[in-house]
Amino acid sequence: MTMTRRLSAALALLSLAAAAHAAPLTVYAAMGYDQAVVRAFTQATGIPVELVHLSTGPLLARVQAEGAHAQWDVLWFDGNLAMRSFAMQHRLACGWAPSVRYTAQGRALVPPDHCWAPVGVTYAGVMLVDTARLAAAAQPRSWADLDSPALRGRVGMDNPSISGPTYPLLAGVLQDLGVARGQRYFETLKANGLRVYPTNSVTLRALQFGQIDVAVVQSSAALGYARGKRGLRVVMPPPSTELPSDLAIGAQVHGAQLAAARRFVEFVLSAPGQQALQHGDPAADSNDTPLLAGIAPLPAAAALRPQRTQVLDPATWGPREGAIDAWFTAHVVR
Description:
Layout: H1 3-21, E1 25-29, H2 34-45, E2 49-53, H3 56-66, E3 74-78, H4 80-88, H5 104-109, E4 117-123, E5 126-130, E6 155-158, H6 166-177, H7 179-191, E7 195-197, H8 200-208, E8 214-217, H9 219-226, E9 232-235, E10 240-249, H10 255-268, H11 271-280, E11 289-290, H12 299-302, E12 309-310, H13 314-317, H14 321-333
Parallel strand pairs: 1-2, 1-3, 6-7, 6-8, 10-12
Antiparallel strand pairs: 3-10, 4-10, 4-11, 5-8, 5-9
């Protein structure tokens, strides 16, 4: 055996020994495929992981409640707006970037301070239209169409105070129209009978049982629900707001845990990690646009054709989330 091979073998043994004695890596995640990715990571590296899976809203609330006594090593959820807020609170480990080949879209989403790493992109809000119940003339094609008399009481969306991916949808409309006009727009939808449900799954269930004819939900949820069903059409009204999924490491993580956390981020952004991601939740979150060169999206996501997209500035919209969610609750939900 050559010296190089002996050195490689010794390093591999040291890695396995470290993994065997390391404390579990604690990952807080709100992704439908997170369990599949965690399983594949542990199989590939031997590093144990304790996964805490929650929907985005409860996950963010838990992180806020833990504050300086964080119980997590890695965060993973949709939306860089909350990531920017956590970075401003000095809760994230900044300054390190994984060695990966991003696409141009991916490079544009990497924060300059490297406080988190983008993984994939969905769209914060698309319209899933039941074409079997709506005449062609009544089917919406733009955001403005949602307040038409034909759709009175027939449109549903998620509550941004509960559904994390919905705040970027709300912020996207406010960014496009301006805050005052955007707020008037949602008040107009309320006057037209807008129904607000807790999360994607509840909104889609309302569509399934005929309570609404148009569900405004995250693109991955719409694509997964529509798979194999007739009479459903996904509409991407302009602008479509990009919603990146992001990974971050806690500022409190050091030593062996920090090394394990970085290996997890690198694994997710590798071909095996992406394969586990795409097989983990094909009925929902796996329908994203990968941000890594050479990784193709699933067919349903590849077929999306947004007319115009926009990216939210996390530094602008992240700190405003609490106030805007409170406004939506007071003026639209109630």
